[in-house]
Amino acid sequence: MKGIAWELGRALAHIEGGDFSNAARLIRRANHMLDYPISMLHVLETITPYDYHVIRAGLGHGSGLDSPGFLSLLHIGPRLGEAFHTQLRKAGLTVDDLYRRHDEFFGLHDVAECLLDFDERVHLFRFHHLKLAQRIIGGGVIGTMGTPVEVLHQRMEHLFYKELWDVRNQITAKSHDAMQKPTTGCAY
Fold first, then answer.
1. Is it true that domain 2-168 has CATH number 3.40.640.10?
2. What is d(CA 88, CA 82) in angstroms, rounded to the nearest whole number?
3. What residue spans define the domains of the chain?
């Protein structure tokens, strides 16, 4: 995960510099890298609860959502969003404008979609980590770093780029409203 954060740090510099194609390329690479730890959680599901407790003490800060690598993703995620929004303001765009005019602002739109992919993967990691914890140690207990498993569930509600998710609701609502307006004139 530290490698993922490193790639995202490089992408951040490209976003800040307006080099959207290289930013998107690096975020895509980081997203592919994030697929690996997500898949590795499924391997950990093969550990029995008794066997897990033998290795639990050795996990320390390397466990799940408390790992330095995951924490680095939590640090870089908002910074990517800030840089993205700075570029939107420079272009005089809202998120809705960007999606409506995506052909005209393809590079920035590509970055937005890559950020959304990153947000989705972080959400998937949190979900699979929660399910792993529930499967191995139970849902109503204290986790490795003293965090109740229920807190893992609460953290799943966090999104880095809520406005990129919300714009889809807005676009759909506008489309629905447009379809509901009666047409004028005769239909025959």
1. no
2. 10
3. 2-168
